[in-house]
Inverse folding.
């Protein structure tokens, strides 16, 4: 746990002085509050004493009022300081977590679900923020108040203090048992939050499909099941916490009743003054309230402990790929060479997804990749920009091992259009500028024309400034694909990888795009993963993958002669009219 605290404290940063100032204000506030009951006792005794002058009573009363006013101001100031520090800490932690996630390789990202990362970035950090504020205020104020109030109560009457100490021990044991029992239940509750977020995310992303297949009720039932599972997990966790309140209240009132009974005997026996008894009762109240608040704070900290572990788990995750940021190696050509490359998503030699890939792709050439689903086409393409690292063998780009490059430099030289076309909320222009934020209008026009996107952009209401909804849902599938291709072209890449990225466009548009690639970007190495033979039959070389291995390689004509897999695919598409 010490390691977890060190990781969290690093995120206090510029709010450190406020984190220190808050407790200092609290210490002064507590000192004043502890002194007030003594003064109040003196005031009561002065009022009861016949010989006391009115001036003395007024003087003592004025001191009490001033002390209370200062304590109030300091309490308010410490609360404001604590709130600013806690919010700043949460912002730093959330930012750091997001930076860590964005720096993950695909291998790291595969360890965590999207829903889990969303929960950790939102709900878990909220729990940690609350615990931080509790530690700054309640876990400083109440322990100090407890110690000082116990000391003052013992000074007034040590025999009566035995009742208070017995109550304190009982409450401490209760807090320990409740915390120990509640912690595993809250861990389970947070996992249920992950599942609920996953269900919500899936419903929102797939809402069009759900409506198209009239599955809304089914999805609602799934969500209700997740919500109900979360409710049950919350109930199991919180019913343990709920028991804490009645036990605390019962103990406090029992202690006060016992103190009044035995304190009254002391008063009647002449062993205590009325003012001292009232002061003693105030300290007893302070002790018991402090214990109650400490128990509440500890339980909240226990809840947050599960969140702390989940957040630090992400922060401690070591990137599977060394970014090699100090390297200045740059790709001068688009040549790609695979030398006996094997790859496994799980790093398990028994479960290889690519085996013994030997492949040379000359700079400026066009390579088509074909194969059945799961044959390793996308996997092979993702190794080139080093989204994953090879398990064994060597992969060279531009004459250098990909591990010699800084990942940012390597990826800047590669334009990649993934199977899933991702566009962001914003304008068409803003989405295109992801490829090159400094692109001129002329460069935008050239890239969109090559991707056959310029025509439909120009007829949009605001052209390049037309707003897109999240994911580009107000565009057709083919339009999204063409915008993604244009975005990749704007990088002026040495290598262009198209992973089944013309599947949603018609064959005529597909042909125009390939022609534009050949005429406008002749020096770019192009890797085209496709399901349609027509998309790759003019490639300089075609690679046929089967079960993670190279089954055959050659031109369209060569493969028709010697590759049974290629020939079967070609014949089936001809029969289907593709």
């Amino acid at each position: 746990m010490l390691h977890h605290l060190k990781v969290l404290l690093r995120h206090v940063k510029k709010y450190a002085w406020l984190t220190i100032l808050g407790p200092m204000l609290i210490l002064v506030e507590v000192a004043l509050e502890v002194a007030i009951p003594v003064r109040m006792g003196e005031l009561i005794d002065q009022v009861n004493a016949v010989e006391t002058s009115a001036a003395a009573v007024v003087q003592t009363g004025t001191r009490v009022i001033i002390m209370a006013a200062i304590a109030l101001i300091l309490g308010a100031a410490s609360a404001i300081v604590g709130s600013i520090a806690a919010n700043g800490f949460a912002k730093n932690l959330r930012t750091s977590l997001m930076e860590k996630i964005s720096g993950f390789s695909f291998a790291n990202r595969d360890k965590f679900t999207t829903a889990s990362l969303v929960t950790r970035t939102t709900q878990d950090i909220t729990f940690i923020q609350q615990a931080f504020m509790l530690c700054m205020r309640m876990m400083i104020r109440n322990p100090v108040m407890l110690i000082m109030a116990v000391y003052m109560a013992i000074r007034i009457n040590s025999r009566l203090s035995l009742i208070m100490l017995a109550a304190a021990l009982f409450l401490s044991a209760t807090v320990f048992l409740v915390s120990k029992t509640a912690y595993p239940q809250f861990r389970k509750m947070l996992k249920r939050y992950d599942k609920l977020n996953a269900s919500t995310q899936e419903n929102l992303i797939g809402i069009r499909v759900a409506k198209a297949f009239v599955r809304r009720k089914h999805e609602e039932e799934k969500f209700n099941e997740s919500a109900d599972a979360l409710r049950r997990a919350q109930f199991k966790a919180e019913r343990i916490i709920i028991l804490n309140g009645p036990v605390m209240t019962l103990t406090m009132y029992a202690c006060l009743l016992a103190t009044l009974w035995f304190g009254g005997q002391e008063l009647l026996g002449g062993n205590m003054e009325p003012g001292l008894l009232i002061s003693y009762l105030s300290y007893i109240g302070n002790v018991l309230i402090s214990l109650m608040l400490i128990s509440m704070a500890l339980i909240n900290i226990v809840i947050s402990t599960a969140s702390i572990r989940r957040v630090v788990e992400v922060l401690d995750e070591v990137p599977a790929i060394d970014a090699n940021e100090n390297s200045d190696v740059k790709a001068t050509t688009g040549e790609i060479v695979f030398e006996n490359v094997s790859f496994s998503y799980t790093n398990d030699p028994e479960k290889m997804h690519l085996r013994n890939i030997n492949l040379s792709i000359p700079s400026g050439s066009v390579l088509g990749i074909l194969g059945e689903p799961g044959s390793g086409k996308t996997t092979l393409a993702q190794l080139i920009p080093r989204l994953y690292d090879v398990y064994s063998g060597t992969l060279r780009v531009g004459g250098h091992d990909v591990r010699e490059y800084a990942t940012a430099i390597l990826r800047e030289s590669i334009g990649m259009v993934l199977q899933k076309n991702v566009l962001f909320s914003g304008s068409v222009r803003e989405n295109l500028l992801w490829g090159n934020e400094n692109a001129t209008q002329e460069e935008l026009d050239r890239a969109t024309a090559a991707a056959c996107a310029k025509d439909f952009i120009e007829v949009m209401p605001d052209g390049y400034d037309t707003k897109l909804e999240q994911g580009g849902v107000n565009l057709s599938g083919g339009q999204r694909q063409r915008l993604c291709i244009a975005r990749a072209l704007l990088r002026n890449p040495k290598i262009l990888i198209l992973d089944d990225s013309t599947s949603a466009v018609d064959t005529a548009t597909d042909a125009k795009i390939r022609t534009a690639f050949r005429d406008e970007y002749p020096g770019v190495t192009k890797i085209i993963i496709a399901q349609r033979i027509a998309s790759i039959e003019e490639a300089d070389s075609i690679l046929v993958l089967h079960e993670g291995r190279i089954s055959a390689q050659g031109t369209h004509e060569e493969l028709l002669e010697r590759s049974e897999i290629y020939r079967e695919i070609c014949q089936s598409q001809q029969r289907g009219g593709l």
